[in-house]
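Notes from the 1:1 (GR / supervisor)

We went over the backlog. Supervisor wanted to see one worked example end to end before approving the batch request, so GR pasted a single chain during the call. The sequence is below; no edits were made to it. Supervisor asked that the structure be written out right there so they could see what the output format looks like.
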Amino acid sequence: MKRILCFGDSLTWGYDPDRRIRFDEEIRWTQVLQKHLGEGYTVIEEGQNGRTIATEDPAEGEKNGIKYIGPCMESQAPFDLLILMLGSNDCKRKFSYSAMDIAGEMQIMLEKVQSYNRFRCKDAFKILLISPPYISEAIRDSWLGDSFGYENAVKVSKELAGWYKTLADMYDCEYLDAAQYVHASDADGVHLDAENQKKLGDVIAQRVSQWI
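Structure output shown during the call:
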């Protein structure tokens, strides 16, 4: 049985931008991935709304991903693939980060993950780093617009892919630019609708089946 650990934010949790609740299992990209791969695989969902890569967010609670990634890997071990898709929440206005800052956070996370993989797991699992879908222009009129800082969040999110690709090459990770396949819903400018959840699951499944 192959095990795949999906570590992310609300995009991985399966946030429905229209109803503002969680999508049913058959819609979430993680479960679309599970359906494609079949009985020989177990897909583990570890998405959390508001999760950042490595930043404390007192206004929203315990959202710091780098503090949880270690315990999460230990509790879910063994696994064959770790899928990381984070960075959207780090684009929020209150953090004032550039794309390079966010990539710096991700670099620290990858170092922590690779250290665990090498020294605790004997390089047993692969890593898929996904740069998240762009925050869209719809953020201007979205209820999330003020939190994300409107147009600046769009700009920063579009710059992440190049940085993430560089990190994937540096740390010997597989890489996927989600924005090449899916786009955020006009309902809020951040999250994926049902159609794009399915598309992302389809694309990831196609890639994963070639690796493990």
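Supervisor's comment: The first strand starts at residue 2 and ends at 8.
Batch request approved.
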